[in-house]
Amino acid sequence: MAHRLFPVSAILSACVSLMATDPVPQPPSAPQKEHVNLWHGEKVSDPWFWLREKANPDVVAYLNAENAYTEAMTGDIQPFSEALYKEMLGRIKQTDLSVPVRRGAFYYYSRTEEGKQYPIQCRRKAGKGGAYDEKAAEQVLLDQNELAKGLAFLSLGPLSVSDDDRTLLYSSDATGFRQYQIFTKDLATGRTSGALAERVTSYTWAGDGRHLFFTTEDAVTKRSNQLWRLDLQGGKPELVFEEKDELYRIFTGRTKDRKYLLVESQSTDTWETRYLASGNPTGAFKILLPREKGHKYDLEHRNGTFYIRTNKGAKNFRLVTAPAATPDPKHWKAFLPHRPDVLLEGIEPFRDYLVVAEKREGLSRFRIQNLKTGTWKDVRFPESVYAAFPGGTPEYTSKAFRFVYQSMVTPQSVYDCDMASGKQTRLKETEVLGGYDKAQYVTERLWATARDGVKVPLSVVYKKGIKRDGTAPLFLYAYGSYGFGQSATFSIPRLSLLDRGMVYVIAHIRGGNELGEAWHDDGMLMKKVNTFTDFIDSADFLVKEKWTAKDRLVIEGGSAGGLLMGAVTNLRPDLFKAVHSAVPFVDVMNTMMDASLPLTVGEYLEWGNPNEKAAFDYMRAYSPYDNLKKGAYPAILVTTSFNDSQVMYWEPAKYVAKLRTLKTDANPLLLKIKMEPAGHGGASGRYDALKDKAFETAWMLKQVGITK
What we know:
Helices cover 18% and strands 31% of the residues. An eight-stranded mixed beta sheet has the order 32-33-35-34-36-37-38-39, with helices on both faces. Strands 3, 4, 5, 6 and 7 form a five-stranded antiparallel beta sheet that branches. Strands 8, 9, 10 and 11 form a four-stranded antiparallel beta sheet that branches. The two termini are 48 Å apart.
């Protein structure tokens, strides 16, 4: 390696300064430094390894140079980006109110005010008979705008009020690195405590309003591994349980009826639950059923009975019950059988009813059982492609079940379903300003055939009038990992694509759970490549069926979906016009071979353990960074955050630096990195996030010739 005469920062600064006078800005070139990994006896050179030195001024200089280059190369779309931002913002009701939800003696809601980045969390005393009284005095629980003053980033965790309604428990992170602190606030005096704990991952109240439980993460690996108990009346945090197995993470919560405290230890394929009566916070937790490799279960409680969702002999889960006093398997009674074509996603027990959430053929549905009569009712939806989620019904005695419904053409709507009659009442539909008419848009479900014959569902939306002759631009999105299915939801910013004639498609590829647990299994570990080929085959299908053409097809994915973007671009660079790869997991081997990095060891059960040679070879064969090669690539925009804790900034930085030395085309390759505090999801403020979305939308549209 030649001796470097000048510091990297000087070289990069010179590069950036030249941009001001050079009519064609030149991209930064990250110096290469000798670094060799020894993996399974093989020496593997990685000359951009040094970019992971976060505190190195040369690294910061290089990243700033990339930002300057991106700014110079996208100056022509700034007016378009600003116009799109105004257009998107013009459709949003900036001063708005969520649907209040009752919990005990109060109704809780959030509201937004025009010009303010964050929501304001409030409550009002319930009126006569428990009804909502809009004339009751409003009490502000937390104003995130006030908390965020002077901060570039602020994320809040869940808000939890004690059973006696007197004290608020909440968490906040100002770094973007998911380093949450917990606080309490006296709702009578407004007095807020100092930080009670650092690196908190979950928390819950005990039933006495005096004790709270919380979990914390390891300072290096960020694995949630310790459970603590805290007596707010002068006590100090007491370690209750530590999860030693590096494959597992722990979280705490309570059952729906608040009778039990729960601690869940979970790995990718095995779950274990501990429980303790919430009225006995100083007692000892019991294990419901000791962990057994491959057994996943969780529990709820109602009227002295545990409802246990288990995959024991049931790939897509079944539901059993057992007395809370004797919950071992010999006392289990079948409640809902396993069905190979239906995924049992969860349950919500009420005093008189049980709501079951299921998924079939990529669509969610709810069924309600009257626990007195044993009769069932289905919650029916009007569209063939849609998304539905439980909306949060805190009151255990409620006679109505709240859910959220939407589709790719129907804005998000909040409903209450009367559990006795099945009658649905729409409480609110998100208002889309500017005269949105859903009748002008079409959503439908297509099925692409993968190369092994498997049918892959596609959710499609477009504005009426597009031509099916291959001339329409098309935006294809997918994720395909961790069993996280993608739902066909509504998006206000997406309207700016549809109104310009672009078709939008979600590919529900293997690796998610849209078609059940087996759909996840078939896109993980030694079957991970199915995720990538499903996406490619879906894209080929859309081209063949003349929904679009290769030079009109743009694609997007983030995080593990960014891995997808890198893999498919390596496999079929000819198939895509442009790629947006957000916070991409692209340096698979360096990350998965380093057990000290956040998340790595726990990920072995999703991706494979590369310390095993067979897994190493399989993973290396698709790792985007390791498979870059000389040749032509599509236009690529890579976005990330310097403080991202889930995919380290250096993965996309190294990917771009290496690709710059290999690409033979003149297509843009841009890295846009937030150097200020920001998280895995980007900016925390709603206006800042929308500006980022407008920029990304403008860039993608430009690649297919749309600039206004």
